[in-house]
Amino acid sequence: MSTDHAVIEIEYPESDGKPMGESDLHRDWMMRVIQLLKHRYAGQQVYVTGDLLLYYVEGDPRRFVVPDAFVVKGVDPGRRGIYKVWEEGKVPNMVLETTSHSTRAKDTREKPKLYSSLGIPEYFQYDPTGDYLDPPICGYRLNAGRYRKIQPDSLGRIASEELDLWLEVDSNGDLVLRDRATGRILQTPEEAAVAALDTATAAIDAAEAKNRQLEIELAALRAQLKGQ
User: By three-state DSSP, how is residue 113 classified?
Assistant: First the structure.
């Protein structure tokens, strides 16, 4: 006699059913951080995303979190509808939350506890208005199972060792991500394209100016030879 066992397939929704409910400023910064990091890791085995449901307990679709931006190194960078930690085999290397009035409590209390319990090595918060965090950028690094605050350097920058970046705030209060090895500021694809065009245009202008100068010098030399 055989017994059939029903296989229950658990559904992990791609949406929590809640509206984003953020200001244009906070939403823009969430997207900008994702774009900056995506562009930096283009072509590498690094997954960059944000505002995506991250499930961390197999079999329990109620156990999820929605980071504003996160980076996972060493995994397929392809698109996903959700992120299941047990299938990917990795938690994010770094999470960054864009803090606002509505998210301040969760960003400063609930999420650090959860992220540290999951073993996420680094956690950062950025407040684009400067109203809810002082200073407006802060970070934590996992040490012996607990987050320890990352102390800024003499320039007020904090380091992400996981991504080898400096995180800093400029005079306008804008977040700047800077490569620690090269000192270069990360750009979006559009910004990089504009910068490349500006560089090419400047090179062409310099070459044309040099040609004009050579023509002037050549004309002067011809005049000098003609007068002899």
Answer: helix
In the Cβ-directed half-sphere of 189, how many Cα atoms lie within 13 Å?
Answer: 7
Q: What is the value of pTM for the model shown?
A: 0.82
Tell me how far apart the alpha carbons of residues 150 and 123 are, in angstroms, rounded to a whole number: 10
Rounded to whole angstroms, the Cα distance separating 45 from 42 reads 8
Q: Phi-psi bin for 149: left (phi > 0), alpha (psi -120 to 50), beta?
A: beta
Q: Residue 96 forms beta bridges with which residues? A: 69, 124
- Which residue is it, tokens 């499930």? 55
The pLDDT tens digits for 66-106 are 999 999 999 999 999 999 999 999 999 999 999 998 889 89
Quick one: DSSP state of residue 185? B
Contacts of residue 180, defined as CB under 8 A and 6 or more positions apart, other chains included, come to: 159, 164, 165, 166
Residue 179 in contact with residue 164, Cβ under 8 Å?
yes
DSSP assignments along 14-58, one per residue: S--S------HHHHHHHHHHHHHHHHHTTTSSEEEE-S--EE-ST
